[in-house]
Design goal:
By secondary structure, this protein is α+β, with helices and mostly antiparallel strands. It is built from 3 helices and 7 strands; from the N terminus they run E-E-H-E-H-H-E-E-E-E. This is Amino acid synthesis.
Length: about 190
């Protein structure tokens, strides 16, 4: 199995106090961690890529821990998402390898996280940005937590790299008033409601 060759890690944290309405005393924290790694399959078609998911698991857990700490601890996290940008010498399927390691890392760290971790991926050149979707960690239908965060790195991904992303938030969007299922109404049975 290929070994992870990590070039850099990019951490980002936003503190959102308002979106044009009243200023809150307790800002929404939204953060991301982006790991820039070598794509071991760049430049060729490899039929058996699934074993690389095992190699990515420790990286996913390390990223989840670092991101949760950046936002004040795992007990503060209410929303999450994941994504991947694959350099031009790779293929979209290489980004799909991040689904399980990235998602399970956050769910394991957060404990009772029942909702599937939303995700996105694309192939792109150096400087490509990606909007990573976010939903509530326990119920995907909680509208107040539908969000996204743009991630990217000015010098990545190079053609033979992958940029793997995790995103977390500490609460609902500031000034949420879109209705629907509220966080305090979660039943917790199926990860949806």
């Amino acid at each position: 199995m290929p070994k992870i060759r990590l070039r850099k890690v990019v951490l980002s944290r936003e503190e959102i106090f308002h979106e044009g309405g009243p200023v809150t005393d307790q800002p929404l924290l939204r953060g991301s961690v982006l790991a820039i790694i070598e794509n071991p399959f760049a430049g060729r078609y490899e039929p058996d890529i699934q074993p690389f998911m095992e190699d990515l698991k420790p990286l996913g857990l390390d990223m989840a821990r670092r991101l949760a700490a950046l936002l004040g601890g795992a007990d503060r996290i209410e929303g999450y998402g994941k994504g991947a940008i694959i350099g031009a010498a790779g293929e979209l399927e290489h980004g799909a390898l991040w689904h399980a390691p990235g998602g399970y890392a956050m769910r394991d760290l957060l404990g009772e996280a029942n909702a599937i971790v939303p995700s996105t991926k694309k192939v792109g050149g150096v400087g490509t940005r990606l909007d990573v979707p976010v939903t509530h960690i326990n119920a995907s239908y909680v509208r107040s937590h539908f969000d996204s965060m743009e991630v990217g790195c000015n010098d990545a991904p190079r053609a033979d790299e992958m940029a793997l992303a995790l995103v977390m938030t500490t609460g609902p969007r500031i000034h949420n008033r879109s209705g629907g299922l509220e966080a305090d109404q979660i039943e917790g049975k199926d990860g949806l409601r």
